[in-house]
Amino acid sequence: MENKASHLIEDGQESNSTIKAIAEVLAKHTKKPRFLQHVGIEHVHARSSDSNCQAESAAEKRGNVELQVCVDTLTKQLKESEETRLRQDEEYMKRDEENMKKQDAIDAKLDFLLSQLQAR
C-alpha cells in the first residue's frame, strides 16, 4: 500500500491514485471494507477472494493431476517389480527342486557305495 500511495501531488494533497491504492488494499484484505463506505467510497471492486479461490482451486487441481500421474507411474512400477519378483521366486523354487533331486540321486549313489564298502 505504501508503494502505491507514495505518489503525492506537488501541493501536498493525496492524488486519486493514492485513494484508489488504499481502497484496493482495503478491499482485498478486509471482508467488508466499511471504512471505504464511511469516507464516501462505495465499493471499489468485489473482493478478489473468488478469483483467488478459483486460482487456488485450479492450482490444486493441477497439483492433484501431477500427483495422480506420479501415483499411477509408481503403481505401474510396483506391479512390474512384483511380477518380476514372482517370476524369480518361481525360478528359484524350480532350481531348488532340481537341486534336491540331484542331491537325492547323489545321496543314493553314496549310500550304495558305502554299503558296497561295508559288505567287503
Distance between the termini: 111 Å
Gross morphology is: rod-shaped
The percent range for helix content is over 70%
DSSP summary: helix tally: 4
Q: Give the domain tally.
A: 2
Number of strands: 0
Could you say which structural class the secondary elements and strand pairing correspond to?
mainly alpha
Mind summarizing the main beta sheet? none
Nearest-integer average pLDDT: 79
Strand percentage, roughly? under 5%
Supply Rg. Answer: 41 Å
**What is the succession of H and E elements?**
HHHH
Which stretches are low in confidence, meaning pLDDT under 50 for 5 or more residues running? 7-11
Protein described:
The protein has 120 residues and is mainly α. It has two domains: 1-47, no CATH class; 49-120. The protein has helices at residues 2-5, 16-29, 34-38, 49-119. Residues 7-11 have low confidence and may be disordered.
Outline the secondary-structure elements:
Elements: H1 2-5, H2 16-29, H3 34-38, H4 49-119
Give a brief description:
This protein is mostly helical. It is 78% helix and 0% strand.
Features:
2 domains; mainly alpha; 0% strand; 120 residues; 4 helices
